[in-house]
Structures are given as structure tokens and as C-alpha cells.
């Protein structure tokens, strides 16, 4: 079997199609951030995979990374992730087996999921959290500062106060049986991250996610010594080397690799194995694209040290989740997602719909502090 063609679809997300001379086609998904750059990198990588056997997944992963002299980073990681996912899809289809079987079979029968809630006031977000909990979801992730995003403003102190207010309201609404995940998106300077952690400890969150920027992993040590709350990071990590320091130096309790960013299915398996040796669990980040969601479900079923999975199905109905380009959708029952049993990734991709959709680039908020300096989104 040989790869004959590689196509890129830029729609509401970024998808790749890999064709073979035996008529088996695989589909993958990359990051929806910087889609033009990721699509361009896939074009750069085409010569390294066309004409090759798609079942040599590890060889092609290595070729896509190491044939590049200047390599690494989110664009390369996302491009390789999309290609890697399509190769696993081809392999599963060629063998008539779902992805989780190729990864060693089910390490669990279902995966606990968490829901993500938003709100423009403590009352609104608490009510939204209560509704999610009523569906059987036992973990909820949330953040504050949505209103400030709309006006491109971030104020550390006000953000801390609002996150404390939201946390108290949600805990009151859902009780003690639902785990709370406080999302910070890397917004805080370390001093304010410490302030937040001290203020919310009494609400017993499962963990605080991305309390500070990710560029200097050792900065987490300062926060780690001043709070008992577990820490999580990793959604912006690309390849195993980005994750190594977090794992080996014991800087976090949970890792958040995203299959569409971290280098793909092949790389997430390696990240998980490295983390398992240090008793660090994964809570895979999921950018909510249809193929990435399906791949995340398969990975979370097969990888032994997955604690939770981010899944849009946990907070939306099947009607709300209807995808323009793919089906079916993972089934969630009582707060757990069930396996997809179709071959490969296990979902169908509608090329005609994909070709008819125009790209929808997403401009992130251009946040500034009160003094006009640039802040992270």
C-alpha cells in the first residue's frame, strides 16, 4: 500500500485527507489556531509521505519531524498531528479494527468526562453548572473574565475576585460530589496565581489549570510550594520534549496534551507512557473538532493513566453537536463516554460538505492590562 495524494480542507476546522493506491482513505484533524500556517506546513510535509507505506506510522512521524532542519513548535506539531491521525485511520480501516484496539485494546470500558460551562455572572454560571450536573456529569471546568475578553481587558486582581466568586457559587449549586476545575488560561502572574490558589482552597477544586504562562515550567514550582491544590498544564505542549520537564521535575499533577496539537496519536501515547512512570495522570485537552474528539475518545479508552476527558458531548445535546462534516458523535451516558466501534477513527467524513464550507478564521482577543501592556489570552 502506498500514499498517492494528500488534501487539506480548511472549513470550521482544519482537516487532512490521505489517499492510497488500494482505495483506503484516512482523515485527520489539526489545530484550528493558525490554520493557514498549519495548512502550509502540511504542504511542506507532503513530499516526505507521498509514495510511502501509510502503515509505517512511526517511520513517517519521524520523517515529518526530522526531515525539517528548523522544527518543533505548534505549527509543526499540529501538521504532524493531522497527518498522524489520518495514518492511524488508514491502518484501522485496513485491518477492520477501531483505533483503541490498535493501541492495545480497552484499558477501561468507558471514560469519565467533564463539562465546560460559561456565564456572565456568578448566578448564571452556577445555574449552567447545575444543569450540567443534572445530566450526570461529575466534573465541571470553568473560568471567569468572559466579559473582559469582549473589551480586550485583563485585570489580575479583579480576575482573582471573580474566579473566587464563581467558584463559591458553583460549589453551592452542585454540592460536594461534583469536581471543580478552575481554568486560568495562563493569564496570571505568579503572585496572583498564589493569591487565587489560597482563596479557593476551601472549595476543594480537583485542580487549577494553566495558572501561569507555560514558557518557563520551573515557575510552577513557586506556586506548587504554596498551595495544596493539584496543578495541571499542557494543552499548549508540542511533542514529548515539551512535556518532559513538567513530568520529570514533578511540577504538575495532571497533564493536558491535545491530540490535534501535541504531535498526534503516536506522540500522545508516548507522553502518557512517560507520565505513567512518574504517576502523573492525563486529562486530555480537546479542541472540540469532530475527528480530534473521536481520536481523544479512543486514546482515553486505551491509555491507562487517563483520569478525565474534555468532551463537548458532556454539556451539549446531540442536536447541538451536529457536525457539518462528520458523524456519528460519541455517546455519553451518566457522565461517561462510550467507545466508538467503527474501524479506524470510527466516524465518517463528508468531503462534499467540507469542500463547500468557507474557512472561518478565529481572531483571539487582543488583551491588554489596565496600563495598556499586552496580556495573554
Automatic annotation (TrEMBL):
Alphabetically ordered keywords of this record: Lyase, Metal-binding
GO biological process: amino acid catabolic process
SMART domains: MR_MLE (SM00922)
GO function term, MF aspect, one: galactonate dehydratase activity
Enzyme class: lyase
Signal peptide: none
Annotated ranges, domain Mandelate racemase/muconate lactonizing enzyme C-terminal: 122-230
Domain of life, per lineage: Bacteria
Cited InterPro entries: DgoD-like, Enolase-like_C_sf, Enolase-like_N, Enolase_C-like, Mandel_Rmase/mucon_lact_enz_CS, Mandelate_racemase_C, Mandelate_racemase_N_dom
The protein's Enzyme Commission number: 4.2.1.6
Listed name of the protein: Galactonate dehydratase
Amino acid at each position: 500500500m502506498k500514499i498517492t495524494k494528500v488534501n487539506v480542507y480548511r472549513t470550521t476546522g482544519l482537516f487532512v485527507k490521505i489517499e492510497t493506491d488500494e482505495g483506503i482513505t484516512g482523515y485527520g484533524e489539526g489545530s484550528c489556531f493558525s490554520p493557514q500556517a498549519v495548512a502550509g506546513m502540511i504542504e511542506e510535509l507532503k513530499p516526505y509521505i507521498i509514495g510511502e507505506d501509510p502503515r509505517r506510522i512511526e517511520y513517517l512521524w519521524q520523517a515529518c519531524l526530522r526531515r525539517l532542519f528548523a522544527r518543533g513548535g505548534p505549527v509543526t506539531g499540529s501538521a504532524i498531528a493531522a497527518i498522524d491521525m489520518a495514518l492511524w485511520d488508514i491502518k484501522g480501516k485496513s485491518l477492520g479494527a477501531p483505533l483503541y484496539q490498535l493501541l492495545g485494546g480497552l484499558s477501561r470500558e468507558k471514560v469519565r468526562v467533564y463539562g465546560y460551562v460559561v456565564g456572565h455572572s456568578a448566578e448564571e454560571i452556577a445555574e449552567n453548572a447545575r444543569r450540567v450536573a443534572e445530566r450526570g456529569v461529575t466534573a465541571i471546568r470553568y473560568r471567569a473574565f468572559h466579559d473582559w475578553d469582549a473589551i480586550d481587558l485583563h485585570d489580575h486582581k479583579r480576575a482573582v475576585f471573580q474566579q473566587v466568586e464563581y467558584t463559591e457559587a458553583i460549589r453551592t449549586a452542585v454540592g460536594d460530589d461534583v469536581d471543580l476545575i478552575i481554568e486560568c488560561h495562563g493569564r496570571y502572574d505568579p503572585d496572583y496565581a498564589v493569591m487565587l490558589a489560597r482563596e479557593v482552597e476551601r472549595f476543594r477544586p480537583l485542580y487549577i489549570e494553566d495558572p501561569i504562562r507555560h514558557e518557563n515550567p520551573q515557575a510552577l514550582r513557586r506556586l506548587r510550594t504554596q498551595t495544596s491544590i493539584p496543578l495541571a498544564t499542557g494543552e499548549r505542549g508540542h511533542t514529548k520534549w515539551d512535556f518532559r520537564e513538567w513530568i520529570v521535575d514533578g511540577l504538575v499533577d495532571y497533564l493536558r496534551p491535545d491530540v490535534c496539537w501535541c504531535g498526534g496519536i503516536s506522540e500522545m501515547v508516548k507522553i502518557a507512557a512517560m507520565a505513567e512512570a512518574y504517576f502523573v495522570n492525563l486529562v486530555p485537552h480537546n479542541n472540540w473538532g469532530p475527528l480530534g474528539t473521536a481520536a481523544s475518545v479512543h486514546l482515553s479508552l486505551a491509555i491507562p493513566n487517563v483520569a478525565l476527558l474534555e468532551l463537548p458531548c458532556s454539556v451539549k445535546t446531540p442536536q447541538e453537536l451536529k457536525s457539518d462534516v462528520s458523524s456519528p458523535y460519541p455517546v455519553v451516558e451518566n457522565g461517561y463516554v462510550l467507545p466508538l466501534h467503527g474501524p479506524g477513527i470510527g466516524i465518517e467524513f463528508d468531503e462534499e460538505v467540507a469542500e463547500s464550507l468557507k474557512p472561518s478564521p478565529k481572531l483571539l482577543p487582543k488583551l491588554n492590562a489596565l496600563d495598556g501592556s499586552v496580556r495573554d489570552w
